[in-house]
Write a structure and sequence with these properties.
41 strands; alpha+beta; globular; about 25% strand; 6-stranded antiparallel β-sheet; 10-stranded antiparallel β-sheet; about 800 residues
């Protein structure tokens, strides 16, 4: 890693943790701790949200949007020295004292924060057990002074309790339904709301029902006092920095039936010199219908340090099993850390969480994105085929009989239909990726309902997608733009009813190529011909009317106006129509190379290639939101990381390994100075501000982006060149010419392939020889391994193995 991030932190020597030595990071640097039902974010300074199943309907705690200071409230433990009256927090914030004393460590499924203040060493570890709907804050206090210490601890959370949007915009009325009570027998606070709505965005629908959960907050030491209302805990005109209740030590110990609900638990401890005391705070939920039967077991679980240690070990082992499916060893240390750990970790988090909750996304205004969830399948087909299969079936249920799909949806069946031209086609990507990985043809015979009634096999759903594609073509036989394609901000090209997406046409061709190959694999000859006829109809015009001399245009607007053309003053060239021309193979190789050369000449920056250039600086209502955005940020000329993964893929397909790796290295999250980059240097962001804005190099919208899944698979499948096909594992690396050797371990259809690639001639590609278990392999596709482990040797050279 470059020196740039040292001011704040660095990876541990084994790459499995990111250690933050300066916790005053430019933005909150967060982590995700969760299981299949319970989700929580946690920053290096203790901020974050918690929810069960759904961040809109199942919100447990508050997390204030655009708050000052940011990252409030969180999961806090205050530590007070009763002798001096001084107090601090187990994380640097919210109290904010002794900043240099703190260190935060993010690992896979846990975050640990330690500090030594006034002779008291504290270490708190946040994590969520593998199966239970609760989170554990395992705090250990050690007295490193030479005298006994009397301490008071205050665990604190601010509750939301139910529908997060209602809580945000209707707080004055919503507070009348909050209930918080303390059960002295169970040493726990319980909180719920007697009013709850389940509409996605409505705040007026009177549904006459209660929230379906009870939240609980407990600790494994006797509670000496508690608080249930924020106003009493913080005090008038105060915030979390210096709560009045902590200052005075006085908590009301009164239940509450209205107001801003909180959970605050006070415990009293005495530590002798050298003494060490573990404290376990736990926050969780219990379904209302099982509250009476389950509450005792829920609050009494994990009451000992041994229980907590065992639970954390199970979390660690779960992630280790996930990482063991692919292992790489290359000459580049950063590549190894990101591809072995942090990129698949981020991709898995995005798959599980679904773009709905982060420091940037609040989980209150949209459901799960159809195309997001389809692409996230890339992250887990290797490691968890069952979850990938379940996701595909879930997506099938969001489809209508005419092939349209919900653009956004909730798991309970609600959804939003928009006029994006690309949504449906991503279903093809999900299905073909899964079957290439598994060979599971039986998936195609699974039946799932359509959203507007009736059932069909997965084949029927795929055929519906083809019908949708065929019915959505404009005068150039290209997809009618609707309200956007992958680029949501090209949303008014051609006004209400006109406009065609050139990228959409390339995307259609790429997906139809995939579908035709799948149809051939399963023997659906007639369907193969149908798919190929539609593909050829679209491809013909892409290669003729869309070529602009040195690159492909982006779209046709009203009256056939070109966007992304040399004729334009702004937005003359767009990245996606160059990279996807290669991915879809819509033209002859000379044009494709010229298109990607134009990317390097006109779009590349120190941070990677821009999405378009020059940025729009005048509003054009006949193009859309992209022209209203700040030049150099978001879709208006930023380095959009998701799109850069496709540029890397295109360069790999052109066999230009040096250029592909150059783009890859520029985009690594630790490649830019952290004061400039600002967000987490261990995960990808949605975009990086380009050189068309004074804040070039500033990133935003980290974690919840399709970048991680695509980067993981592009790097493994095409750069390192080990990718699944219907017939076996293909080996076709495209690497930097100065790599002499690298290795990949890859689990495929129940066997582990240990592949070592030799590059004695310093080439970028061209496999000349393959051996598997000492025997020569004809062609680039490895046969299905019949053993638990197969050893593969690969040589690159000047002559290509066909």
């Amino acid at each position: 890693m470059r020196e740039n991030a040292v001011r704040y932190g660095q990876f541990s020597p084994d790459g499995k943790e990111f250690v933050i030595d300066n916790v005053a990071t430019p933005t909150p640097w967060i982590n995700y701790i969760y299981n299949d039902r319970y989700f929580s974010t946690i920053s290096n300074n203790g901020g974050g949200i918690s929810y069960v199943q759904n961040p809109l309907h199942g919100r447990i705690t508050r997390y204030r949007i655009n708050d000052v200071p940011p990252d409030r409230p969180g999961k806090y433990v205050y530590i007070k020295d009763e002798e001096t009256g001084d107090f601090w927090s187990a994380t640097w914030q919210p109290v904010g004292k002794n900043q240099k004393a703190y260190q935060a460590v993010h690992g896979f499924g846990y975050t640990r924060v330690s500090a030594e203040i006034n002779g008291i060493f504290s270490e708190i570890t946040y994590f969520v057990p593998v199966a239970q709907t609760q989170e554990i804050w395992h705090l250990v206090l050690t007295n490193r002074s030479n005298r006994p210490r009397s301490l008071s601890l205050f665990g604190y959370v601010e509750f939301c309790l139910g529908h997060a949007l209602v809580d945000l915009i209707n707080q004055a009325d919503d507070q009348h339904f909050n209930r918080v009570v303390f059960d002295s027998r169970l040493n726990a606070l319980f909180a719920t709301k007697t009013y709850w709505i389940t509409e996605g965005l409505s705040t007026q629908q009177q549904e006459n029902k209660a929230w379906d959960q009870w939240a609980f907050f407990t600790v494994n030491h006797p509670v000496s006092a508690y608080e249930t209302r924020r106003e009493r805990f913080l005090g008038a005109y105060r915030n979390e920095n210096a709560p009045e209740a902590v200052e005075t030590g006085r908590l009301s110990s009164q239940d509450s039936d209205f107001g801003n609900a909180v959970g605050a638990l006070k415990i009293d401890l005495t530590l002798p010199p050298g003494g060490r005391i573990p404290v376990l705070f736990r926050l969780g939920v219990i379904p209302k219908e099982r509250f009476e039967s389950d509450k005792q077991a829920a609050v009494q679980a994990f009451r000992t340090p041994e229980d907590a240690a065992t639970a954390l070990q199970a979390v660690t082992e779960k992630w280790e099993r996930f990482f063991q499916h692919v292992r790489v060893n290359t000459p580049d240390a950063d590549t190894n850390i990101f591809l072995n750990y942090w990129t698949p970790y981020q991709a898995k988090v995005a798959f599980d969480v679904g773009r709905v909750a982060s420091f940037y996304y609040w989980g209150i205004s949209r459901g799960f994105g159809f195309r997001d969830m389809a692409q996230d399948i890339l992250a887990i087909t290797i490691s968890d085929v069952q979850k990938a299969r379940e996701r595909i079936l879930l997506l099938a249920r969001q489809m209508f009989r005419n092939g349209r799909v919900y653009h956004h949806f909730y798991r309970d069946g609600q959804g939003e239909l928009t006029r994006h031209c690309d949504d449906s086609l991503w279903f093809i990507l999900a299905v073909t990726e899964y079957i290439q990985e598994t060979g599971d043809k039986a998936l195609l015979q699974e039946e799932e309902p359509f959203a507007d009634g009736g059932k069909g096999t997965l084949w029927d759903h795929l055929k519906a997608v083809v019908r949708y594609a065929e019915d959505n073509l404009g005068p150039h036989h290209l997809p009618i733009f609707g309200r956007g394609d992958w680029n949501d901000t090209l949303d008014y090209i051609g006004g209400e009813d006109e406009g065609e997406s050139v990228w959409g046409g390339m995307f259609y061709v790429a997906m139809l190529n995939r579908l035709g190959e799948l149809a051939h694999f399963v023997g659906e000859t007639a369907f193969t011909r149908e798919v190929e006829r539609l593909r050829d109809r679209i491809q013909q015009n892409l290669n003729t009317v869309c070529w602009d001399g040195k690159w492909f245009i982006r779209a046709f607007g009203a009256d056939g106006k070109k966007i992304g053309s040399k004729e334009n003053r702004a937005g003359r060239i767009f990245l996606n129509t160059q990279s996807w021309a290669v991915i879809a193979s819509v033209s002859e190789p000379e044009k494709l190379r010229q298109a990607m050369d134009s990317v390097r000449i006109h779009l590349d920056t120190d941070f990677g290639p821009k999405l378009c250039a020059p940025a729009f600086r005048e509003i054009d209502p006949n193009i859309g939101l992209i022209t209203r955005c700040v030049p150099g940020k978001k879709e208006n000329g930023a380095v959009f990381c998701h799109a850069t993964t496709w540029a890397i893929l295109a360069e790999c397909l052109l066999k230009r390994g040096d250029q592909a790796f150059a783009y890859y290295k520029k985009l690594l999250p630790n490649a830019v100075d952290s004061d400039q980059f600002r967000v987490e240097p261990y995960v990808y962001s949605q975009y990086i501000t380009s050189n068309e804005h004074p804040t070039a190099g500033m990133a935003s919208h980290s974690w919840q982006t399709g970048t991680a899944a695509w980067m993981y698979r592009v790097a493994i499948d095409y750069m390192l060149g080990v990718r699944p096909t219907y017939w076996g594992l293909r080996v076709d690396p495209v690497i930097p010419s100065d790599w002499q050797e690298f290795s990949v371990e890859r689990v495929f259809r129940g066997a582990r392939y240990r592949i070592r690639v030799h590059n004695p001639g310093g080439v970028e590609s061209r496999v000349t020889r393959i051996q598997m278990d000492g025997q020569p392999v004809e062609g680039p596709v490895l046969p299905i391994c019949s053993k638990a482990v197969c050893q593969v040797e690969v040589w690159l050279g000047q002559m290509r193995l066909e």
